[in-house]
Amino acid sequence: MSLLGTLQSGQRGLAVASSGIDVTAANVTGASQPGFSRRRSVSSQLAPVQQHGLWLGQGANPSAVLRSTDRLLGVRLIDATGAKASADTLAQNLRVVETYFDATNTTGLAESLDKVFDALGAATADPSDASLRRGAVHACEVFATTTSRIASGLADTRESLDQQLATSLDEVNTSLAEIASLNERIGKSGAEAGPADLLDRRDQVILDLAGKVGATAELKADGQAVVYIGGHEIVAGGDWRALSVGTDAAGDTTLNVAMDNGSFNVTDVAGGKVGGLVQARAATSDWIDTLDQFAFTMANTFNTQHTAGFDKSGNPGGDLFSVTASATGAATGLSVTGAIRDDPTLLAFAGAATALPGDGDNLQSLLDIEDDTTLFAAGTNPRATISDLTADVGSQVASAAGDVEAQTALVDDLTVLRDSVSGVDTDEEATHLLEYQSAYRAAAKVISAADELLRTLLQIAG
Amino acid sequence: MRVTQSGMWEMIRRNLSQTAERTRVIEEQAVGGMLVNRPSDAPELLVEIDRLHASGMDQDVFTKNSAQSLAQLDQMDAELGRAHDALSRVRELAVQMAGDLPTAEQRGYAAEEVAALKASVLSAANSDFAGRYLFGGAAWDTPPFDTTGTYVGSTDEPSTRVGESTWVTTARDGSQIFQGGVDIFAGLDAFITALNADDSAGISTSLGDLDTMMQQVMDARARVGTDTNVADDANELASSLSMQIESRMGELVSADPAETYTRLSELRASYQTALQVAASAKSQGLFDLM
């Protein structure tokens, strides 16, 4: 090899070392960035040349900057992130709903129902007693108010969930558009060896999207990603389909993906935060329906029995509760009728029109409602019906909390594994830096030595 | 496996967060003294907790109702005892005034005493407890017998709930007691008439009726006694159940202070350790030595 060739080899050595230092610098500065994958500088040897019968190497050129990633691990992390976000969102929102169902029984629905029957039971001691009647009316008012308060709270929660869904879908659509845009840019820049920053950004947006809507992704060899929701292709190349909120025939919220000729429903297959919101909404709606049915049945049962009795003046009893004509909204609108609220003597405790002060025959019939197991489909009495509802809320919250723990542990484990592949170890980078520094100095020495030899030759010639 | 700095910090952050969350839960239990603070804390226990709570509230009502019923029944027993005593005295007088030995004057004095005893029986029949007439049935707001001894009360006997399916009659149909077999007031009037008329045959007839009158009152006392026993048992049962329910509720929902405090101490120590680990994790790396 000529001295000029040696100079060029030294120059290439500087380029390789310089490239390594650049990559190390990028790794160190990106170490704490979410989604950053460590890079490594790759160089390739040049073909050797034959000189004086000897094959001599020409050094190496920097050829690529590669990301350290594990595609399978990435896909699993995307799946697990969607499941975790779904469980998180469900648990958070159900915990809000849970606050309306008091486990300690001091202000809850079950307590208020107990108080109604206890007040009626106390009134058996003297059905004509004004204070006992006032106590019974008050207990009925507390029961109605408590029922209404819980139902209103659940309705507010459902409305809040709808608002969150709309906001979340805006974010989802923004992410879908960004992934499509990144796909295009990555496609134009070349295969997977293309811009690592774009690939990192694309992967991070997909991971975020998984958290938002439970999307999964297929990473293609050309570096592009195809994104799916419940198996439906949402992003392919630079194309993407928008998600929107709709309402089905039953009035329940649906998630739809826009198509050229309409849309298809992905409500049941969405995951992530959106999936969690949908599940929380469905559970809340079920509890609202249960509460409505409970309030409707109880009010009408009380009213039917109450109108069979006679008030303190011997007049036939009127309705005890005001309630809607159908079960829908019955809990929210439940109240004690104004006339009875203002005048407890209208409580129809007597069984006969003579309405003797000790006549509590109808009061006994009203008390019998407490143990009536024919009122509800489950064959439970009113008290047990409320207990079952509360237990259902508690079970679903506990189950969601358990899911959160399991999914969090899985995501944590996968994150650690991903970090072990793609994360930046600053000690490792420091050794790389020292190595590249050393290589750079060595290449510089080669250039310096060749330069000195050339000068010597020139002086001899000169 | 490669361990990176960000991975290490993430692990520290996670451990701190988990320990803090566990500490929060135990602190809540320690402050409130309750293991179950929301339905999700023990959904499997909720149905039992609800049932116990409802039953506990019921026992409060039963205790109150049975105590009030017992007071009424005691009063009822005392009044029937008063009536019985009066009738016993009337019977003594009837025995003394029977036959041909007593003079008309003696019978006249006896008639005056019997009239007073009749008034005592009428007073007992019209007795009340806190304004509620005990022998007027459901019509307990007015005296059940007028001055002539005519019953103006109700034949409907109201009951008070003192147990889950236990009721006691707390106002009796006075007509059944005082006029059921023999009309006590009419019988006493007849006895007074016979005494005043110095009618030995009439006095003998009244003597026979008096045994029936006393038996009527005794029968009523027996029924009241039965109700008293029922109310007493209900009261004891309600008190006993209240204690058992409270105990069971304590087992289910109350936090053991010693255990809670111990766990809290452990968690706080664990949290402190995690903080120290976090502080030491920023130890020098290779860059610091370069």
Short description:
The complex is a heterodimer of chains A (462) and B (290). Chain A is built from ten helices and 13 strands. By secondary structure, chain A is α+β, with helices and mostly antiparallel strands.
- Could you give the count of β-strands of chain B? 4
The description of the largest β-sheet of chain B is: 2 strands, antiparallel
Count of DSSP-assigned helices of chain A: 10
Query: What is the topology, as strand order, of the major beta sheet of chain B?
Result: 1-2
Kindly report the average pLDDT value of chain B.
Answer: 91
Poorly predicted runs of 5 or more residues of chain A: none
Q: Strand-residue fraction of chain A? A: 5-15%
What is the assigned CATH homologous superfamily of the domain at 52-249 in chain B? Answer: f41 fragment of flagellin, N-terminal domain
Specify the helix fraction band of chain A: 55-70%
Order of helices and strands of chain A: HEEEEHHHHEEEEEEEHEEHHHH
Radius of gyration of chain B: 38 Å
Largest interface (CB < 8 Å): A-B, 63 and 56 residues
Which features characterize this protein?
A: 462 residues, alpha+beta, 2 domains, four-stranded antiparallel β-sheet, three-stranded antiparallel β-sheet, 10 helices, 59% helix, B: 290 residues, mainly alpha, f41 fragment of flagellin, N-terminal domain, two-stranded antiparallel sheet, 71% helix, rod-shaped
